[in-house]
């Protein structure tokens, strides 16, 4: 059983949302503050929530695999990356109103991650030994300050502190193409701290319409020193920047219709965005312009609906759709990181006791998406194609209380 990060999250390798209520609506939260963890999507939400504490846990079950075909080195076959499952993801948030205009808060949550564990190594025919896989976990801490700058208009800021933990195994054939082959694979877990900032705005327009927006900077990370031979810049793996906007409409008191759109700049981080072709242009692994996973930027769309049945029950549903970050030409290394699901469906509900304790649950299913390789395995590795696929299931439970 894994813990502390996502195995392959729904928006590429970012989590689809933070907070169990948001997750019940496909992650919609930019203009829909529902609990203390809403500040992880939009720091300005802190002014809307009163004094409250929320904590939850998610069980995340990815199903990842790969197929190699037409390879001259004898690597053909079907491979399962499910040697580690399921993953347990905790989160907690607290918000306090200091005055009518000022609120503070803090959220601790998983930012995203990727994991594959191939007991049967897809690279064995290239000379790899043991199981193959990578494990990246990201946990973020977001202290938050929000201010009602004008009536109905709030702004917020969250300095972000991230802790990333990474390990890789069974990648020996690629180490020969590195500036530092001794620090490429099978070095155990290595951790690094990353820092950045998230800014947010939330505005009410009448009693029925709310708009929101956020910007999260790239989180600059210290190097993974034990894997200095793997990633560009001698082991640097920053967290990509992202930004987006949201809309929430309440046509009647009991019904809320909401949507988010978000852009994730995966290509802006060399370790994520640089293609494998850099290797054959004279840039070895770990060089400043060396190969990464070849991901492209994606846009994510989410829509959610919430309906309050009575004083005890609220129900939710949502749908999310994202671009696929992995081009067909980049599937070989992405056997290790097949973050290719594009759709996810969610449902959730909250029960509130007479004393105000809220119990919220949700379920999510991301149907399998497959990317067939096209020119994906370079001739020096025998040519042919690598196909990758991913499906996901998750469920979560949280408790919350407004004080």
TrEMBL record:
Q: According to its record, how does it sit in the membrane?
A: Multi-pass membrane protein
The subcellular location is:
Cell outer membrane
User: Which superkingdom is the protein from?
Assistant: Bacteria
Keyword annotations of the record: Cell outer membrane, Membrane, Signal, Transmembrane, Transmembrane beta strand
* Any matching Pfam family: Toluene_X
Signal peptide (UniProt feature, chain positions): none
Question: What's a Gene Ontology MF term here?
Answer: long-chain fatty acid transporting porin activity
Gene3D superfamilies annotated for this entry? Outer membrane protein transport protein (OMPP1/FadL/TodX)
Any single GO CC term annotated in Swiss-Prot or TrEMBL for this entry: cell outer membrane
Q: Does the keyword Membrane apply?
A: yes
Keyword Transport on entry? no
Give the family this protein belongs to, as stated in its UniProt record: Belongs to the OmpP1/FadL family.
Q: What's the protein here called?
A: Long-chain fatty acid transporter
Q: From which source organism is this entry?
A: Sphingomonas taxi
């Amino acid at each position: 059983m894994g813990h502390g990060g996502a195995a392959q999250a729904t928006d590429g390798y970012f989590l689809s949302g933070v907070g169990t209520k948001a997750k019940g609506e496909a992650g919609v939260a930019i203009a829909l503050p529902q609990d203390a963890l809403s500040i992880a999507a939009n720091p300005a939400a802190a002014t809307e929530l009163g004094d409250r504490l929320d904590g939850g846990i998610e069980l995340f079950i990815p199903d990842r695999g790969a197929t190699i075909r037409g390879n001259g080195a004898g690597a053909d076959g079907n491979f399962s990356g499910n040697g580690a499952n399921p993953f347990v993801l905790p989160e907690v948030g607290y918000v306090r109103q200091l005055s009518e205009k000022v609120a503070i808060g803090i959220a601790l949550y998983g930012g995203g991650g990727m994991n594959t564990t191939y007991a049967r190594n897809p690279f064995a025919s290239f000379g790899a030994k043991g199981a193959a896989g990578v494990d990246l976990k990201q946990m973020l801490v977001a202290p938050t300050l929000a201010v009602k700058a004008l009536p109905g208009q709030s702004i917020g800021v969250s300095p972000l502190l991230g802790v990333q933990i990474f390990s890789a195994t069974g990648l020996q054939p690629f180490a020969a193409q590195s500036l530092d082959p001794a620090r490429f694979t099978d070095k155990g877990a290595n951790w690094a701290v990353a820092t950045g900032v998230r800014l947010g705005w939330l505005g009410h327009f009448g009693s029925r319409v709310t708009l929101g927006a956020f910007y999260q900077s790239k989180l600059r990370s210290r190097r993974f020193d034990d894997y200095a031979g793997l990633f560009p810049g001698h082991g640097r793996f920053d967290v990509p920047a992202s930004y987006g906007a949201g809309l929430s409409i309440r046509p009647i008191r009991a019904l809320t219709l909401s949507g988010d759109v978000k852009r994730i700049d995966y290509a802006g981080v060399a370790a994520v965005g640089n293609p494998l072709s850099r290797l054959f242009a004279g840039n070895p692994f770990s060089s400043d312009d060396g190969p990464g996973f070849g991901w492209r930027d994606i846009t994510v769309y989410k829509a959610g609906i919430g309906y309050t049945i009575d004083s005890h029950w609220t129900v939710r549903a949502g749908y999310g759709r994202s671009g696929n970050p992995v081009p067909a030409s980049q599937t070989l290394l992405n056997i290790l990181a097949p973050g290719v699901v594009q759709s996810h469906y969610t449902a959730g509900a909250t029960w509130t006791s007479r004393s105000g304790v809220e119990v919220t649950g949700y379920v999510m299913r991301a149907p399998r998406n497959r990317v067939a390789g096209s020119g994906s395995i370079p001739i020096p590795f025998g040519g042919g194609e690598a196909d990758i696929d991913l499906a996901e299931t998750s469920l979560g439970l949280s408790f919350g209380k407004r004080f």
